[in-house]
């Protein structure tokens, strides 16, 4: 899908791209083209509009710096990894490509992004969206704001998990099952926080590259101040998400440690029970052999004495373990 926008005093405005003959074309007053899973024909229109070749999806997913940030044919290409699919419960990092040539800008994306929709909803002149630099910086700010919201959500969930992990031990059996279930929640939020950190790192590289390559356009006046503020916000969020990730790692270690402790307690109880029962079992086994030369078998009080010996042999280890605090 190709959407062409004019950028002026009223902010971005959608332009018709279908001519009277039904052929899709880019209007001459267009200043911004947004490509969403484009066809080959739409890519060709965008390339003619920009005057440079648009990178393919495979090229945009490469991790080399030179593949994500470069200048070619008078255009500057920048790719950021942006969070998508969070509302659907399947967060992914998807490439978002900026291609800037003078006052013309092309954006290329392959997933629907909440941050992009939020930007379009508030893209007004009062928010600085009066030219290509306003669109570029507005999108960067929208991605940073969305990532900040995700980190705030993860931070709140980590606090909740922290309370659940360290609750009072009322029901050991139910708590053990709950701790096992919490490991999955901790892993899910840890994965989301890791993706947020990776996205912030890519946005930071993009802003730094844009500040170098587009300084003549976006590095002056209000645009330059917005660029510096966006970079400062990204770095502060990186510090925060690193703190959240350290808390998640601590929670994971603590949860595994508590599960191991409870398993050890169960094994300890079983060990004590086996130790308590072992002496009576030994006595009963001895007197169950029925040899002819066993005078105790003919005693009148042999049976109750054997029971008493078994009871005492079981009681003594129990009292010993109780005194040592092992029960």
Write structural notes for this entry.
The chain is built from 9 helices and 7 strands, in the order βββαααββββαααααα. It is α+β, with helices and mostly antiparallel strands. The chain has 2 domains: 2-262, Beta Polymerase, domain 2; 263-323, Up-down Bundle (Methane Monooxygenase Hydroxylase, Chain G, domain 1). A 7-stranded mixed sheet has the order 2-1-3-7-6-5-4, sandwiched between helices.
Question: Which properties best describe this structure?
Answer:
Beta Polymerase, domain 2, single chain, 60% helix, 327 residues, alpha+beta, Methane Monooxygenase Hydroxylase, Chain G, domain 1, 14% strand, seven-stranded mixed beta sheet, 2 domains, 9 helices
At a glance:
Helix content is 60%, strand content 14%. It is an alpha+beta fold and 327 residues long.
Q: What fold name goes in the CATH topology slot of the largest domain?
A: Beta Polymerase, domain 2
What's the CATH architecture of the largest domain?
2-Layer Sandwich
N- to C-terminal distance: 70 Å
CATH superfamily of the largest domain: CorA soluble domain-like
GO molecular function, one term: cobalt ion transmembrane transporter activity
Family: Belongs to the CorA metal ion transporter (MIT) (TC 1.A.35) family.
Keywords: Cell inner membrane, Cell membrane, Ion transport, Magnesium, Membrane, Transmembrane, Transmembrane helix, Transport
Main location: membrane
